[in-house]
Hints:
Blueprint: H1 20-25, E1 29-30, E2 37-41, H2 51-54, E3 61-66, E4 72-79, E5 84-85, E6 89-93, E7 99-103, E8 109-111, E9 120-129, E10 135-141, H3 144-147, E11 150-153, H4 156-163, E12 174-178, E13 182-190, E14 211-213, H5 220-223, H6 236-251, H7 255-267, H8 272-283
Parallel strand pairs: 1-3, 5-12, 9-14
Antiparallel strand pairs: 2-13, 3-10, 4-9, 4-13, 6-7, 6-10, 8-9, 11-12
Helix pairs in contact: 6-7, 6-8
Protein name: MalM protein
GO cellular component, one term: periplasmic space
InterPro entries: MalM
Amino acid sequence: xxxxxxxxxxxxxxxFILTQRALAQIQWQDVPFxxxxxxxxxxxxxxxxxxxxxxxxxxxxxxxxxxxxGTLEIEIESPVIDQTLFVxxxxxxxxxxxxxxxxxxxxxxxxxxxxxxxxxLSAELNLTPAMNQDYIYLLIYTTQQDLAKTxxxxxxxxxxxxxxxxxxxxxxxxxxxxxxxxxxQINVSSANGTxxxxxxxxIFSSNKASTPVGKPAASPATAAxxxxxxxxxxxxxxEAYFNQAVTKALKAKDVNKALNLVNEAEKLGLKSPxxxxxxxxxxx
Length: 284
């Protein structure tokens, strides 16, 4: 039996079960590293086998991911398309198709329009495959419960006002219907290749522990270690990196990314990234 950290254990009304017959129906798509793979989903692609655990026949996005690259960072996004939204639930399977971790729709957070990206749901998974596995598998679907809901999106005029430090106008937010139609975008990279070279990776993981795939996790006491540990020594190269990254994000008009960088920098005790952020925003 597989185990995962307490934070990843999900109680479902309907247990997730994949029969051999269901597995035979799934066409797994290979995911190259550091490339965004987009999968279009339509109501016509509904898979009957999902009804037993999703409560409805849902289209699925199914991915096969190499498991020999160490710890993996997997970004999953579902953009708003034509005022509708596919709300994902994600299940990670090990090399033997055993369930290793489940990420319900509540794991996907609303990201406001910024840069070249529109409004979207997004989640980041940190997974560590066990040894002797060639691949792990990621299955994404939606549920009957999520399909019955809607999501409120901020009006673009409000987003722009916030980004430029102005008073948001009194405009109603936009109600977006959930749908069986949509798109899933996935990007897989090796955590060992992260750009934060030489710094403890837990600082930049948004307090998300890496989930072991294919072997038992550490004890709850180990998994509950303080995620807000402070690094007391930060070199000038690190500060220069954050300053440049914040400036670059603002030039790309990606305010959310810039703010995230500022917050991460402040965890390290750096002050100049926020000063750069405020100076750039106030000058526009």
